[in-house]
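Example record

One chain of 128 residues, shown exactly as stored in the release files.
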Amino acid sequence: MENINNDADLGIVKISDEVVSVIAGIAAEEINGIVDIQQLVGNNISQLLKGKKTSGKNVKVTLSEDSAVINLSVAVEYGIKIPEVVSAVQENVKKTVEAMTGLKVDSVNINVQNIYLPKNQKDECKED
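Predicted structure tokens for this chain:
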């Protein structure tokens, strides 16, 4: 958990790394070309029961004094320009996490784990 001191001395605000990972996962999924991060681990029953948007296995957050390092594993759609999409994910995750938490994001590291072919393209490939 990360402590954020409030200037008004009203108390301490603690933001857990899990909250930061949920924010980062949602921010990554907002970018066109990124496949739902949750799909990377299939339909994990525990995820569904807990109602979590993202999996801890796919978004790792390391918090220090007042900064964060975020590691994301993503899947991308076939045919997209991976460097452009990954750059957009890095920018959106950094901007969103910093805006929502007040933490400084030192880095957003992306691991492209898989490529998904949209269903209609899979069907076209089978017909050839």
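Notes: The mean pLDDT is 80.
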